[in-house]
Amino acid sequence: MNVLSPPQLAAPPLHDLLGASFVFNSPATALAWDRDFACFGLANGAVAILRAHWQGAPELAPRPGGGLHIVPCSAPPPPPAIFALHKAEVLALSGDPLGGILSGGADGVVQRLLDGEILTADTKARRRIVAVAAGRGGRRAFAAGRQVDLTGPDGRRLIMKAPVTALAYDPSGLHLAVGHEGGVSLEAASFRESPVHEMGAVTLLAWRQDGAAVAAAGPSGIACRARAEHGWTDIAGLAGAPTSIAFVPNGTLIIGGQDFVQHWRQGGSAERFAAPLRGPIACHPRLDLFAAADDEGRILLRRIGVADAMVLREPGPAPKFIAFSLDGQALAFAAEDGEAGTVMLPDLLFRTNQGAAP
Q1: Interatomic CA distance for residues 187 and 248, integer angstroms
Q2: Which residues contact 117 (CB under 8 A, 6 or more apart)?
């Protein structure tokens, strides 16, 4: 099973060795990945893009005789590319499987940014685009008020019972979950029983990597729906209101809050980590690893049942967003002070250890 490599634990924060960051005058409001590009939505309506890997970047390599060493960079990271997508705050970003990103703004405009070209997908006068999502085959969704507009092969308009707050396609890119102020609805998601769950406002959605389950969360709690079950499960034992949720590949749900991080599996209650962790959190797409903040503003890479942690970012202003790239080879973050950065996470950092705790 994959665990963190112990020789790395005494090293400086990985961001200092394999990362880059910039400080922006406008705070980050959203984060999404487009292939190897970390895309940060800003309060001034722009999207800033950082490349995680570049020609001349530092590299991790095996050391003769065992261990690893850093090959120093031969060129500095390129400056961020900044695109003025909106005339008001960026409210939502989503990576598009066909390339590029989809963005929604407080100006009522839905934009698609692909290879530097800005394409206006729709405009809603005097409306706010609070959520966007992109799926397979050109499927895209965006929400304003109670309306969810779907474009592509399944193009139509959905009218929800309450204002929409979150959208998420499953990993197949075919099935859409819609969170709103009254609960969650699974649209065309092959859930024949109980596709709708009323639970108060749902602001967070997370699909399991295999698409076999979805979690919906808001200030009132978290509910999970597995395809193999006949209904929704309300998660017990929460330490507080969740602020971020995500699944690790083995099906464990990681829950981040203002001053806690917990983990949950079907049939049990949420359990708190003993370490002083807090949200935001993000889960690796392939390995049973997750990243979380701590009370010093560090970003730590952890695994359930393993006490060791890898420090990805040094102490500092609290992180606002954390996200792994789709291949797990990098992580992006944005902090309260306007810093936005990336950290390279090559697979050489991790090794197999059959004696590790589960």
Answers
A1: 24
A2: none
Instruction: List C-alpha distances in Å: 145 to 10, 90, 105, 130, 160.
Output: 50, 16, 13, 8, 9
Tell which residue, 214, 144, 225, 130, has the closest CA to residue 172: 214
SS3 75: coil
Tokens of 76: 């500095």
Question: Is the CA virtual torsion 104, 108, 114, 116 positive or negative?
Answer: negative
Structure tokens at 354: 């059959």
Beta-bridge mates of residue 163: none
Which strands sit side by side in the sheet containing 164-169, from one edge to the other? 164-169, 176-180, 183-187, 196-198
- Show the tokens assigned to 44: 């001034």
Q: Of 5-14, 76-85, 271-280, 285-294, give the lowest mean pLDDT range.
A: 5-14
Q: Which residues contact 100 (CB under 8 A, 6 or more apart)?
A: 34, 112, 113, 114, 115
| Ordered strands of the 271-272 beta sheet | 242-247, 253-257, 261-264, 271-272
Is the pTM above the cut of 0.90?
yes
Quote the Cα angle for 274-342-62, to 5°. Answer: 85
**According to DSSP H, which parts of the chain are helical?**
14-18
Taking residues 171-178, report their average pLDDT. 94
Q: Which residues pair with 291 in a beta bridge?
A: 282, 301
